[in-house]
Each structure stands twice: as C-alpha cells, then as structure tokens.
Amino acid sequence: MRGSHKEGSDAHVLVLGRISDDPKTHYEQLKPLLDYVVPRMADVGIREGRILMAKDAQQMASYLRRGRVDWVSETAGTAMLLQQRAQARPLLLTERDGVSHYHSVFFARRDSDLRTLKDLSGHNVAFQRPSSTSAYFVPAATLLEQGLALEILLSPTDRINRGAVGYLFARSELNISTWVHKRLVDAGVMSNLDWDNPRRVPDAFRRDLVVIGRSEDYPRALELVRGDLDPKVAARLREVLIDAAGDPEAGEALLRFFKTTRFLPIDAASQRTLDHIGDGVARVRAEVE
After folding, report:
1. Distance separating alpha carbons of residues 98 and 174, to the nearest angstrom
2. Interior CA angle at 285 toward 141 and 223, to 5°?
3. In sequence order, what are the residues at sequence separation of 6 or more whose Cβ sits closer than 8 angstroms to the Cβ of residue 179?
4. Cα–Cα distance measured from residue 205 to residue 233, given in angstroms and rounded to the nearest whole number
5. Mapping DSSP to helix (H, G, I), strand (E, B) and coil, where does residue 226 land?
6. 165 and 249 in one domain?
7. CATH number assigned to the domain comprising residue 24
8. Are 80 and 274 in contact (CB under 8 A)?
9. Could you list the residue range(s) of the whole structural domain that residue 242 is in?
C-alpha cells in the first residue's frame, strides 16, 4: 500500500507539507498550527508533528504519493493539480482574513479598445506566475472557455499568432498593474482582493484602468490530505481544524497560518467550482503548457 512505511516507526507522526520558495518564513507560519493540532490528535495515535517543504507542485505530488506528507494547505488550482497527480483529497475550505471565496479580474487601459475577454484575441496579457490560481490557472482556463488559444511569449514585443492571446509572467501583482499602465502589455489579471489593494494597484494607475472581465467565484484556499491517510486520522484532523476557530488557544496559530480565520466544510457549490477548476487545470496543462 502507498504510504505503508508510515506504519510502525512513523505512524505516530503527522507531516504538514508546503510548496515554498521561502522555507524559513513558511516554517514560522506553519509550526504554531501544527503544534496546536498534534496534542489534540493523541486519541488517533499522533504524538509528533513535522514540516516538509517542496520546491514545486511536482515534488509535493511525489511526497504525497510516497506517503511522506500527510496534510497540505494550498490554493484551489494547485490543490486540484495535487488531486490529479497524487490523489490528494480535499478536506476543508480555508477562510483567510474573513474571505472564503474570491474571483479573478481582467483589466486593461481605459483608453484601449479592450472591453470584453473576446477582445483579447491578438493581444497579450500578463499573468503572475505558473503556480498562481487567481493570476494563471483560473484566468487561463477562462480564456480557453471563451474559445481563445493561448501562447507563451518571450517578451512583450513578440508577435502573436492570429486569433491567439499571448501571455507573459510578471512575477508580482504590482508588476502586472505597472506593465498594463505603462502599455508594456495590453491586459492583466489578478484576484479581486489584489485588484482592490492599493499596494498592488496604486490609485495613480487605477483611474487609467478598466475591468474587462471576471471569472466565477472559487474557494480561496483548501486543506488537503494524502489519499491513503488513515481515515481515523483524517477525520480527527478535520474535526480539530473546524473546532479551532472557536478555541481561544488557537487564535495566534490561525493568525500566523496565512491569516486563517476559520476552516469550513466543502459545500456542494464549492465542490462544483473545484471540479470546474480541476477540468480547467487539466485543460491548461494539455493545451497551454
């Protein structure tokens, strides 16, 4: 059985994984919640917690398949990727800063001729990075659903094939809004939370920009467990996390855990959205990457 080496010497250890380009910072964000959870799982045999970082989704999928990671916190796009690649199982929705769902916003300069997503044909768009749900997976899938082809560009001046949308990665939301404002690219995309944040879209830029489209709402983040985790351990973890919002002892740990306000059951509407994102992720991987 996959993960069978967890039996015996490691069966008492709960391993929390994270895809990270900054392990030190992320360790400090993860450790308090793990320290809160572990003592509350003694009745299902958990006595110790560990953290294991992966450099990308591929490495995390490998850890999950080999039973080296039990529990992961991720955004919806990467969560669905881990479900497809490693049979990871969504356990709960994660509400951060009081927000459990959000959407992606496409925008362009107000003085451009772009007013709808269909208008992007023959133009270029700035995404954030290939691991972003709100600024890559969801918007790329949204454009494919509009019947638009996507092609990666080496630079903003690259020629775009007729009828396609060229795309580049800008690395940060501030870069995306800057590139659009300075006319380096025709359009950009980010989450509505980033769009409303003046550190990501300065007020001096905003008056020159206009929203030209948006995605459907989707869960902001998810907690996942590996597919072959002992059902008793998974059920207890789910219970401890759901109860944490009502426990004053969990307050600081939740705040450190990416400003989590509470963990929520996955309702039917959110499950449908996740399935849709899963289809979109598969399509982006097949048709774009």
Report:
1. 23
2. 75
3. 126, 156, 170, 185, 188
4. 49
5. coil
6. no
7. 3.40.190.10
8. yes
9. 4-99+219-287
Give pLDDT, residue 7: 46
Q: Report, as an integer, the average pLDDT of 78-101.
A: 98
**Is 9 strand, coil or helix?**
helix
pLDDT tier, 289 (very low <50, low <70, confident <90, very high otherwise):
confident
- DSSP conformation class of 2: T
In terms of domains, do 110 and 137 share one?
yes
SS3 for 121?
coil
- The angle at the Cα of 90, spanning 87 to 91, to the nearest 5 degrees, equals 130
Q: What is the pLDDT of residues 41-71, one digit of tens each?
A: 999 999 999 999 999 999 999 999 999 999 9
Average pLDDT, the chain: 95
Does the pLDDT at position 2 exceed 60?
no
* Amino acid making up residue 248: P
Q: Are residues 195 and 240 in the same domain?
A: no
| Residues with Cβ within 8 Å of residue 240, at least 6 apart in sequence | 37, 40, 41
219-246 residue pLDDT tens? 999 999 999 999 999 999 999 999 999 9
Q: Contact, 60 vs 24, CB < 8 A?
A: no
- Helix boundaries (H) for 52-191: 57-65, 76-86, 138-145, 173-181
CA gap 38, 134 in Å, rounded: 32
Number of domains in the chain: 2
- Between the two ends of the chain, the Cα-to-Cα distance in Å is 32
Please report the pLDDT score of residue 6 as a whole number.
Answer: 57
